[in-house]
Write a structure and sequence with these properties.
By secondary structure, the protein is of the alpha/beta class. The chain has 3 domains: 5-182 and 191-216 and 223-229, Serine Threonine Protein Phosphatase 5, Tetratricopeptide repeat; 364-441, Rossmann fold; 452-617, Rossmann fold. Helix content is 56%, strand content 7%. The protein has 31 helices and 9 strands. It has helices spanning 5-17, 21-34, 39-51, 55-68, 73-85, 89-102, 107-119, 123-136, 141-153, 157-170, 175-187, 191-204, 209-221, 225-238, 243-255, 259-272, 277-289, 293-306, 311-323, 327-334, 373-379, 382-388, 402-405, 431-435, 452-462, 483-486, 490-493, 514-520, 534-542, 553-560, 602-617; strands spanning 364-368, 392-397, 411-414, 424-427, 469-473, 502-505, 546-550, 565-569, 590-594. Strands 6-5-7-8-9 form a 5-stranded parallel β-sheet, with helices on both faces. A 4-stranded parallel β-sheet has the order 3-2-1-4. β7, α30 and β8 form a beta-alpha-beta unit. The longest helix is centred in the C-terminal third of the chain and has 16 residues, at 602-617. It is elongated and about 110 Å long.
């Protein structure tokens, strides 16, 4: 006995509900064959075919259903879902519009159309759809989740947080809501809570590659680089074609000083998507770190060709050229720094022109600091050159530098204080470009001096000499992106201490882990509490026979004072120290000790120790 239409329909529904989708499709197809003019039969067949991924056949079934019944709202909705999932957003929107023309208060359709409108960049219309959907069904977690996505996209992070939190409360097992909550918490820099949300998402969906990836991003901002690399590895395991995760894992490897490992990941990312400018940019940075500058330049230019407004690639190319001493090509590109979000610079929108080297005699100019204290110390030397051209110079720098730099300009002002009127302005690190500085024309050092009264006071505080006085500085700004590479633990740095010498800490800021070492080594003299500003540090520095330091502001201060200074450099140092040379055109009194292998200070210490013995014990 053959099965009736109604029996086939019923069996199809039961099979579909039991996840026997192929059986369901067969039942629905047979039912549609029995009653080819029955629109719901074609719609049901379309649903089963779509679930099997047979989208073209599904669309054909929906088309037949709509041919038979043009105002069939469910068929319009189902057709829209297939088109949306296929990325045909405009066509999906048209289907949802047709469904809503039949029933303007269909909450699921409003939610689906809102999602498509958001993907099309129509944020406000999407928000309106989600608002109406929620007014109809306020306890739908998926609706709150989608509302949160559009709120986050519009920049309303506080409201997005509320929406995602509501979605999680309504449906604790909705992994996507936990993931999105983690994203907004990360944007709000609530890192520990973000990690907890990603963990909740991954407990529900262990193979959620974006959750692993974004969890890695938060760990990286917390400088937990090893854990970040593990998170990216899990993202890649979940999705081996996830190019962004390879780029991020490469970045974590770079943070740890493992440029060769980073390059492998960047190569993979570029291979997965040769048109990905970020992959070529990151690859260029890694090649530069490995000393392969010609290849680095080619990779960075590839990134720029793919994305001409890629500020990070322009800036990285500038660094690559400056590190090689190619100042002529490097300085113009260095101006791209203002567009690099990761640098977090503060562009000053003064209502006066930027000075670029033109005649300035008789005019007033503001020269303003922009980056770290060491940068200001290095480039404030140009204030004297600007004044020599007949300008009235106002110098604005961070407050701790003001007393030290008083003699370099007519007025020295702390950043944040009221400024006098001026005709032109120039950031300190744009001055080399304005002067067309080359390696041969770097302005001379010796432009900073300790105040005589302060130096006398420090000499009295130090008391009689007990041997050679060596000033030491072992760590810089912990927030610097290269801090892991350029700072050295005090316990390790102490291997350089010379028996019989008097060692004096020049550091104002000490790290918690330094306290225990100081307790065990009372012979290292500390004056952190007495260093009120850099004029005190300069006076203390002036009493030293030698300064030994990592790449930090102390290196620049000693060099600017023409004080003998030995600078310990990572294998991939900052561009200003150039390549493969032990001297510096910026600081003739400096001797550079470079790592031969990434992370290995042993050879650096051995060479410095031998030179110390020749200098003081011979």
């Amino acid at each position: 006995m053959s099965e009736s239409f109604e029996q086939l329909q019923q069996k199809g529904v039961q099979a579909f509900q039991g996840s026997r989708t192929a059986e369901a499709a067969d039942f629905f197809a047979r039912a549609a064959a029995l009653k080819p003019e029955h629109a719901p039969a074609h719609n049901n067949l379309g649903v089963a075919l779509a679930a099997l991924g047979r989208n073209r056949e599904a669309l054909a079934s929906y088309a037949r259903a709509l041919e038979l019944k043009p105002d069939y709202g469910d068929a319009h909705f189902n057709r829209g879902n297939v088109l949306r999932d296929a990325g045909e957003l405009a066509s999906a929107r048209a289907s949802y519009d047709a469904a809503l023309a039949v029933n303007p208060h269909a909450a699921d359709v409003l939610n689906a159309r809102g999602d498509v409108l958001r993907r099309l960049g129509l944020v406000e219309p999407a928000r309106a759809d989600f608002t109406l959907a929620l007014s109809l069904q306020p306890n739908r977690a998926a609706f709150h989740n989608n509302m949160g996505i559009v709120l986050k996209q519009s920049g309303d992070l506080a409201a997005a947080f509320e929406s995602f939190a509501r979605a999680v409360a309504l449906e604790p097992r909705l992994a996507e809501a936990h993931y999105n909550l983690g994203n907004v918490l990360a944007d709000l820099t609530r890192s520990d809570q973000a990690l907890a949300s990603y963990d909740a998402a991954l407990a529900l969906a262990p193979h959620h590659a974006p959750a692993h990836n974004n969890r890695g991003n938060v760990l990286r901002t917390l400088k937990r680089h090893g854990e970040a690399a593990e998170a990216y590895t899990r993202a890649i395991a979940a999705d081996p074609a996830y190019g962004e995760a390879y780029i991020n894992r490469g970045a974590a490897a770079s943070d740890l000083g493992h440029a060769a490992d980073a390059l492998k990941d960047y190569d993979t990312a570029a291979g997965l998507n040769p048109g990905n400018a970020d992959a070529h940019h990151s690859r260029g940075v890694a090649l530069c770190a490995l000393g392969r500058h010609a290849e680095a330049e080619a990779s960075l230019r590839k990134a720029i060709a793919l994305k001409p407004d890629h500020a990070e690639a322009h800036w990285a190319l500038a660094i690559c050229l400056l590190q090689q001493g190619d100042f002529a090509r490097g300085w113009p590109l260095y101006e791209e720094r203002w567009k690099v979000a990761s640098l977090k610079l503060d562009p000053r929108n003064f209502p006066v022109p930027l000075w670029q080297g033109e005649n300035i005699a008789g005019r007033s100019i503001l020269l303003h600091g922009e980056q770290g204290l060491g940068d200001a110390i290095q480039f404030c030397r140009y204030a004297l050159l600007v004044a020599a051209r007949g300008a009235h110079v106002i110098l604005e720098v961070a407050a701790p530098l003001v007393p030290l730099l008083k003699g370099l300009a007519e007025q020295v002002v702390a950043k944040g204080e009221a400024l006098p009127a001026f005709d032109l302005h120039c950031p300190l690190l744009s001055l080399p470009r304005a002067f067309g500085t080359t390696l041969a024309t770097v302005p001379r050092s010796g432009y900073l001096h300790a105040a005589a009264d302060k130096q006398k006071a420090w000499a009295e505080r130090l008391g009689p000499r007990r041997g050679p006085r060596i000033g030491i500085s072992w760590s810089g700004n912990p927030k610097h992106n290269m801090d892991l590479q350029r700072s050295i633990a005090l316990a390790e740095f102490s291997k350089l201490l010379l028996p019989g010498a008097e060692h004096v800490s020049l550091q104002k800021d000490e790290r918690p882990e330094d306290a225990a070492f100081f307790a065990a080594r009372p012979d290292i003299r500390r004056f952190a509490d007495n260093l009120c500003d850099f004029s005190d540090t300069a006076a203390l520095c002036a009493e030293m026979d030698l300064v030994i330091t990592v790449d930090t502001s102390i290196a620049h201060l000693a060099g600017a004072m023409n004080k003998p200074v030995w600078i310990l450099l990572a294998s991939n140092p900052d561009w200003r120290w150039l390549l493969r040379r032990s001297d510096s055109p910026w600081y003739p009194s400096a001797t550079l000790y470079r790592q031969q292998h990434p992370g290995d200070w042993g050879d650096v210490f051995a060479r410095a120790q031998a030179d110390l013995k020749r200098l003081f014990l011979a």
